[in-house]
Amino acid sequence: MSLPTIYFIRHGETAWNAAGRFQGSKDIPLNDLGRVQATHAGDVLGDLVARNGQALDDLAFVASPLMRARVTMELVRTELGLPPEGFALDDRLREIAYGEWEGSTLPEMRASHPDLFAERERDKWHVSPPGGESYVSVTQRMREWYDSLPGNTVAVSHGGTARALMVAIGVALPEKAADLFIEQGAVYVFRNGTLAKYS
């Protein structure tokens, strides 16, 4: 049996993204650029699906419950000519929780917890932010999500969950994935143990 193909889209930009603030579980809306990026991702996705000889009706659509992901999915589906609300939500796709560091920039994190910040810089995969999640735990829920997929799927989620998914299905190692930049407005295609980015 072939593995499901995942068309993975990171949500569009928010004001906190632009300011370098870590969002985690905070429900921050898209800014104007983020809405443009989401629409562009829908255009890229439409081309990819057509190129792969797939029908939109054969794809499952699912998003993180956070507003920035939900609105991105609505804009993607609108660009595809689909009803914007026709997708599922899955809490396993929510962003990695940054706990007390949510809303902070990197310099603010360093100032608030210098020892923990330094420890996490050495090992981002295993060390949790204060009151937050480790990438290890996010990888576990992303593996569970992947194993539950009924077939080829379009997912709108977050940068942290993208990194965790890469490790969960073996297309990246933790020490590399932790620092990978996940582009907004792009589509990451996970297929048969490979990963490609289209933007």
Descriptive account of the structure:
With 199 residues, this protein is an alpha/beta fold. The protein has one domain: 3-Layer(aba) Sandwich (Rossmann fold). Helix content is 41%, strand content 13%. It is built from 8 helices and 6 strands. It has a 6-stranded mixed beta sheet with strand order 3-2-4-1-5-6, with helices on both faces. β5 and β6 (194-198) form a beta hairpin. α2 packs across α3 (67-79), α4 crosses α5 and α6 (135-147) crosses α7 (159-168). The longest helix has 20 residues, at 32-51. The chain is globular, with a radius of gyration of 16 Å. The two termini are 29 Å apart. The model has no long low-confidence stretch (mean pLDDT 97).
**CATH class bucket:** Alpha Beta
Number of strand elements = 6
> How do the strands line up in the largest sheet?
3-2-4-1-5-6
The percent range for strand residues is: 5-15%
Note poorly predicted spans.
none
- The pLDDT mean sits at 97
Structural class, please? alpha/beta
Our count of domains comes out at 1
CATH superfamily: Phosphoglycerate mutase-like
Helix content: 40-55%
As a whole number of angstroms, the C-alpha radius of gyration is 16 Å
Can you write the helix and strand succession as a string?
A: EHHEHEHHHEHHEE
From the 3D structure, determine the CATH topology: Rossmann fold
DSSP helix count?
8
Describe the largest sheet: 6 strands, mixed
Q: Termini, distance in Å?
A: 29 Å
What's the architecture in CATH terms? 3-Layer(aba) Sandwich
